[in-house]
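Next comes a single protein record:
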Amino acid sequence: MAVRILSRLVLPEIKGAAFVSSAAAPATLSDFDVQHKTPVIRKQKLIPKAQYGGRHAVTMLPGGGIGPECMGYVRDIFKYIGAPVDFEVVDIDPNVDNDDDVQYAITTIKRNGVGLKGNIETKSEAAYVTSRNVALRNELDMYAYVLNCKSFPGVSTRHKDIDITIIRQNTEGEYAMLEHESVRGVIESMKVVTASNSERVARFAFEFAKKNGKKKVTTVHKANIMKISDGLFLETSRRLAKEYPEIEHNDMIIDNCCMQLVAKPHQFDVMLMTNLYGSIVSNVVCGLLGGAGLLSGRNYGDHYAVFEPGTRNTGTAIAGKNVANPIAMINASIDMLEHLGHHYHAELLRRAVHRTVNEDRVLTPDCGGSASSTDVVNSIIENAYLFVNDMETE
């Protein structure tokens, strides 16, 4: 099951020196290998994964707005720390009225198994041109989206010590993109909820909670109004909850959920929800923790994984001004390294980000600081250098 990709989230202690790929060290399979050695559920035309001499090839989709500059920062940091990753950069033109670029991007992710992406704009209003972001998730069957929402002590916020995981159904619901005009002036939009995908993502959520010591799963819904669609999702969650008696399960209507998040966020542990509710709740929680520039999101399927900033905002208004917060994209790259099994480099970079944000408090204006994007990146690189020296003396 795809849930097995999250089976090992506790990293081994980092000891020893220098930049050595972790690929040769662990005896167990990396999350990347688990995905490619245990295909289940949905048939895919699999392409042999690209991996050369212990290095991983990763598809990089810069997207629009601040995406390209943030991707540049990631590449600079990876080069400095010697991360064993080679990026295959694919640019998608937001203005074209066809899906050729998207199909090529999908092919490269199938070949590489992993992607790192910014938010990809879809400017065409033609009905036959689908949202690029939705198309990637649907075509690659990445049905589960995971957003770890943990407070940054160095960022001033109203609520402290928040630790919530949002798990979102990623391929259907209102994002099915099935709309039509039944009669002139009357538009009908179909919300698709299936039993199979509801069960997949619900089991994913309970397995995640079980393996990460979480105590409660809250299913977010609107079953009081959408009794059949959300009713199916809710009933599926309640049924699967019986298989996990050690985990508390409750449910909450989406409107009340948003109010409770703002007023009393600490009552939540793992939150399970459909696609649109997940988009809304993710942005609410990111706002509580300091904004769109901090948290990273993970798209998982049985075969492929794509990592990205958590709120999927393009940031067009601040592009090219050297004020964009690069932390979300850098955190996404840490998640990617972890998934590939490069735990040394992932932990090194995680420690450097922690010191930069929480101890040195080198923050961009969106988090109350005055640092530029490059100031933050340079601080992370400097801290990574210090951590390497510390490890060499242990």
